[in-house]
Write a structure and sequence with these properties.
The complex is a heterotrimer of chains A (246), B (301) and C (225). Chain B is α/β, with parallel strands linked by helices and 301 residues long. Chain B has helices at residues 11-24, 42-57, 71-80, 90-96, 105-116, 139-145, 175-182, 197-205, 218-223, 246-266, 269-280, 286-296, and strands spanning 33-37, 61-65, 85-89, 121-123, 133-137, 161-164, 188-191, 210-214, 226-227, 240-245. Chain B folds into two domains: 11-130 and 237-296, D-Maltodextrin-Binding Protein, domain 2, CATH 3.40.190.10; 133-227, Osmoprotection protein (prox), domain 2 (D-Maltodextrin-Binding Protein, domain 2, 3-Layer(aba) Sandwich), CATH 3.40.190. Chain C is an all-alpha fold and 225 residues long. Classes of the chains: A mainly alpha (246), B alpha/beta (301), C mainly alpha (225).
């Protein structure tokens, strides 16, 4: 066992640089994750905020919560591949559709539900009293959304961003199954050649990436969360502070 | 011969599942029983079905134990008597038994028999069909660069992108072999999958110029790809060959041996490619493919 | 899409029709994997929860540990285990069970904690022993919360089982992997859709079980599903 861990440590020593190295693949990993997260945020958050503001869409949220938990990430990644390949057949500037396009599409799809849910819940949970008071003060719905609801909902929304970010980073390794070369490559290749050291090292890297993402976004979340408000907001909304599985 | 397609051994649960399946797929005759086993990729299933059905047509009772896992699982099963017959590949099996194959089919086969003998195993005649590593390009590339053999690639060293199974850079019969024997230098290597849709899509989409596939891959037929000739004989002979315990051969007699040999002799690489294509790309079932092949070749009606 | 010169439909019903047997086998395998994981997870979680309820100080570390396990991406967790326990059922189960712990332990502790102290006091006043208190008062009242936790765990586990296809198990994940390996969308769709359906069915089943076991479901104590 000690020998094995020793081998893992020396593997790390040897594999930092180069196109198949840790640095390059980490970069791919985070670029992919960032792109997917931002895309999903742009797509999911505005409608969620608007619906939350209107007090609608709760049924949709419940459905998404259940669906989001039940959908196998592996299935979505696998399904994305034939879809992006078919798209690539038609779109001239895409070559084969494998690699980045496939895993990107899958990750965006997986990120939409949690972002939507948390944004919606966050806005919805802003006390109606406050909104009423603001209306009484003559604020327009849009002003209320922008100046009252959004700031108050920030803690819950930030939780949502954090949870989603971790989920995206944790699922991105599956990209190796569709020819994307990020951190998952070490695990998948390690399986293929029965190289336990590589598999283990890859696992360390993937886990570290997820935990790092959680830590970084968690720090931002705490910064943006005035303590009392966050407790009441999260309790009222019933949103659980769970991170997602990869 | 490729190493296992699937990334893991399947073990007891899979054998249990296979047993469940085979309990439903038992033979039809009341003749002697033969148990046929296979590893877990399509070609093996098709070949297993062909032998199974031809035996059933002759009155044997056949037990199918397919999809057991990779060679590490199936080979011991053969030795233990859990299965009686499996379809192997001369070169890879010889390597597995510690020998050194060459690209000469006869020599490799002879060496294999010699290696199996002390273990009370033997092989029947080998067939012309071979499933070994091969370099493949699109028809357009072959025309544009004038490629017909692997050696032709050397003229384009440093410019072509190569793609194949993730383990390719570490297998002597894969990238290192081509670099050493042919002096090839590729601009880059893309890890994809083992002769699957990723490799095909990458080749078709232009992400790679040269792909590592297998000589019996269905997609070569399906897409009109060009298999470059292994003119310097890097790849050892990988003829399909039924392997059995010696006692099974003795027990079933000459008729059994002749029947199997007649079937093996008629399966060519081109036929295997077509069968693989219909299995992998058209998603036709192995049983159906086997029956149609046997009908077409006059073994059953 | 043109593959091999033939136009292929995205989904083939006829394949489904001719493979019902195999599909059912895999559904069964999937259920077995899920069932074992939840069963073992419940036992371990019950023990951990018991520990946490008895010795409050341990709750923090226990939560921390199970949350840590939960945070590790599933592929990575299985990858950590493979060098140690191989491509086996044990590996799959260790991974799957690990993911159940966080939610189950939390549910049990929260559920029992949520029992109205007045009821507890009344029971003690009536002379209930510790064990009777737990078994006849606290557990039944905590059931709704615990059951919700089991539902969430069940659904999550069903999804995770598909990933075990990469280490040789898989249940319905087997179809996803095989479909991915031979460009066969129908298989991928079958694997994915049935996995979701299975999760939904299991969830529904547990709701029914919940109503039978605890017909006095206290709506207030239902954790956000």
């Amino acid at each position: 066992m000690i020998d094995f861990l020793g081998e893992v440590v020396s593997w790390f020593g040897d594999n930092w640089w180069g196109p198949t190295g840790i640095v390059w693949r980490s970069r791919q990993h985070f670029e992919l994750s960032g792109a997917a997260l931002i895309t999903a945020a742009v797509l999911a958050m505005p409608p969620a905020a608007w619906l939350g503001h209107r007090g609608r869409g709760t049924g949709l949220v419940t459905a998404l919560v259940n669906a989001g938990r039940a959908i196998p990430t592996f299935g979505i990644v696998a399904l994305a591949l034939p879809i992006t390949i078919r798209i690539a057949d038609v779109v001239p500037w895409m070559s084969s559709g494998i690699g980045f396009p496939a895993i990107y599409v899958a990750l965006v799809a997986l990120a939409l539900p949690p972002l939507f849910i948390h944004t919606h819940t966050g806005i919805l949970s802003v006390s109606t009293d406050v909104v009423e008071a603001a209306t009484g003060l003559g604020m327009t719905p849009r002003q209320i959304l922008q100046r009252i609801e959004l700031p108050l909902a920030v803690p819950v929304i930030m939780t949502g961003i954090r949870v989603t970010a971790v989920q995206v980073v944790a699922t991105a390794p599956l990209g190796a199954l569709v020819a994307h070369n990020a951190l998952g490559r070490f695990i998948i290749d390690g399986f293929a050649v029965r190289d336990s050291v590589r598999v283990f090292a890859g696992a360390v890297l993937v886990a570290a990436a997820a935990l790092l993402t959680d830590a970084v976004f968690g720090a931002v979340e705490r910064r943006l969360t005035p303590r009392t408000r966050s407790e009441s907001a999260t309790r009222r909304s019933g949103v659980r502070n769970t991170t997602a599985v990869g | 011969m490729r190493t296992s397609r699937r990334s893991g051994a399947v073990g007891a649960i899979a054998i249990a599942v296979a047993l469940l399946a085979s309990a439903c797929g038992g033979g039809s005759g009341d003749g002697p029983t033969v148990t046929i086993g296979s590893t877990n990729f399509g070609e093996q299933l098709i070949l297993g079905e062909i032998y199974a059905q031809v035996l059933e047509a002759e009155g044997y009772t056949v037990e199918r134990r397919f999809n057991l896992g990779d060679r590490d699982i199936v080979a011991p099963a053969l030795r233990d008597g859990e299965i009686d017959l499996m379809v192997e590949y001369t070169g890879s099996l010889l390597t597995y038994e510690g020998g050194t194959p060459s690209s000469d089919s006869d020599a490799t086969y002879a060496a294999l028999i010699a290696a199996l003998g002390p273990q009370e195993l033997s092989a029947l005649d080998y067939g012309p069909a071979q499933d070994k590593n091969g370099l493949v390009v699109t028809a357009e590339t072959a025309q544009a660069l004038g490629l017909a053999t692997v050696s032709d690639l050397a003229a384009h060293n440093g410019t072509l992108i190569f793609g194949g199974p993730p383990e390719c850079p570490e297998r002597p019969l894969c990238l290192p072999g081509y670099e050493e024997v042919y002096g090839l230098e590729f601009a880059d290597f893309l890890p994809l999958d083992v002769g699957g849709p990723l490799t095909v899509a990458a080749l078709a989409g232009g992400d790679i110029d040269v792909a590592l596939l297998f000589t019996s891959d269905g997609v070569i037929a399906a897409r009109g790809l060009v298999l470059l000739e292994d003119d310097m004989g890097l790849q050892p002979a990988e003829n399909i060959v039924p392997v059995l315990r010696q006692e099974v051969i003795d027990a079933h007699g000459q008729d059994f041996v002749d029947l199997i040999n007649r079937v093996s002799a008629l399966i060519t690489t081109a036929e295997l490619r077509e069968l693989n294509k219909r299995y992998g790309i058209d998603a036709v079932d192995a049983e159906v493919l086997a029956r149609e092949w046997l009908q077409a070749n006059g073994f059953v009606d | 899409m043109i593959v091999g010169g033939t136009e292929r439909p995205f989904f083939r019903w006829d394949w489904v029709g001719s493979h019902v047997g195999e599909i059912l086998e895999r559904v069964l395998e999937h259920l077995v994997l899920t069932g074992i994981a939840i069963g073992v997870g419940l036992i371990i979680s019950a023990l951990l929860a018991g520990l946490a309820l008895r010795y409050r100080r341990t709750y923090g570390p226990i939560t921390w540990l199970s949350a840590g396990l939960y945070a590790i991406p599933s592929l990575a967790l299985f990858a950590f285990l493979v060098p140690i326990t191989g491509f086996t059922m044990l590996t799959a189960q260790i991974g799957l069970v690990s993911y159940t712990l966080l939610i189950l332990v939390r549910s049990i502790v929260t559920g029992i904690d949520g029992v109205d102290p007045a009821i507890r006091e009344a029971a003690v006043g009536l002379g209930y022993s510790r064990r009777r208190l737990l078994l006849e008062v606290e557990l039944p009242l905590a059931m709704p919360v615990i059951l919700t936790g089991i539902r969430v765990t069940a659904v999550t586990t069903v999804g995770l089982v598909t990933i075990t296809a990469l280490i040789g198990r898989g249940g319905l994940g087997f179809f996803i992997l095989r479909g991915l390996g031979r460009f066969f969308e129908t298989e991928i769709i079958v694997g994915t859709v049935l996995s979701v359906a299975l999760a939904a069915a299991l969830d529904g089943l547990l709701v029914v079980v919940g109503r039978m076991v605890a017909p006095w479901t206290d709506r207030r104590s239902r954790v956000g599903a």
